[in-house]
Amino acid sequence: MSETTKQPAELDVRVIPPREKHPTIFQTFEALAPGESFVLVNDHDPKPLRFQFEFEHAGRFGWEYLEQGPIVWKVRISKR
Amino acid sequence: MRLALSSAAAPDLALDALIEGAVRRGFAALELVLGDAHGVGPALPRAKVAEQRARIEAMGATVAAVRVASLGKAASPAVIRLASALGAAVVAPFAHGKAATTAAREGGMLLVAHPTEPDAVQRLRTLCDRASPGSLGLAWDMDPTDDAFAAGGRDVLDAAWPFLRHIRLHGGGPESMGQEGRGIGALMARLALRGYTGALALAPSDPSYRIAWARWIGRRGGWGCGSKTAEPSLVTLDGA
Asked: Is there a domain that residue B238 lies in?
């Protein structure tokens, strides 16, 4: 069996208990090298998360919606 | 990563109802436990299996795995062919040389389910290394409320990589609040950063949670025959 091909990292936070979601997302972001990204998967529009990113990482992140509901939201979050 | 719903969450649901519930909750895939009421099984004619696969995909899902409870089923060419026709792997609780050989011969993939035991995974890796490429992999049955998860979860991921193709998360969904502080967030971050592309199938931690799961996936109607009243051990998790 060959090794799993490296895919864009996808973090599905729907299975994470609510109070651990944001810490997990920021932990994943911190682990990225500049220029890298991951895709956040959630069951609602993560606007509050974006506000938190803008507060804590202003100018150092990218935010691109890949899918916007109505059941699943996907956002590519990149590190600049 | 594909989030999947195990039919173990609603073993009495027919296939269409299971798919509808899964899609309603945003799942991309199904883990079909052989013998559940979905009716997908190795006795079905090939054309019928193709029809079921087309219906599942038309409704917006795929089949991530066909799960069997016995080693005999895992070594059955009919089960391997069924899974392959669905575009899925077979997940079995054990494996031996014959099952791996059958999977390789039939062009399918057999995934050996293992608990959170790094030593057991190391032994299974030996089997994977010896098997024909693409025929044998690993399926991690994890329960974050189990102390073994906190102690050895990271080691299991390291040991199983890159053969890890399927994860069954016991106790997610409506039970996820019970997993707070158990390390599931850290594990999800590690899976993301490694680029895990397999399925993550949610299943109840115990059959007694089936009412809570049925409500969570949006099942309508009652349970018939007063089953809830008759079985006070069933957990409802009202408000989940």
From this structure: no
Q: In tens digits, what is the pLDDT along chain B, a chain of 240 residues?
A: 999 999 999 999 999 999 999 999 999 999 999 999 999 999 999 999 999 999 999 999 999 999 998 777 777 899 999 999 999 999 998 766 677 788 888 889 999 999 999 999 998 998 888 888 888 999 999 998 888 888 888 899 999 999 999 999 999 888 888 888 888 999 999 999 999 999 999 999 998 998 899 888 885 443 334 444 444 455 555 544
Q: Do B162 and A1 touch (CB under 8 A)?
A: yes
Query: Distance from B147 to chain A by nearest Cα, in Å?
Result: 18
ipTM of the complex: 0.86
**Does residue B74 fall inside a structural domain?**
yes
| Residue B240 within any structural domain of the chain | no
Subunit contact A23:B185, Cβ cutoff 8 A: yes
Query: From CA B140, how far away is CA B113, in angstroms rounded?
Result: 6
Question: Which of B132, B184, B188 has the most A C-beta neighbours within 10 Å, making it the best mutation to test the interface with A?
Answer: B188
User: What's A21-72 look like in SS3?
Assistant: HHHHHHHHHHHCCCCCEEEEEECCCCHHHHHHHHHHCCCCEEEEEEEECCCC
The pTM score is 0.88
Range of the domain at B100: 2-230
Looking at the structure of chain B, the number of domains it has is: 1
Read off the CATH number of the domain in which B104 is found.
3.20.20.150
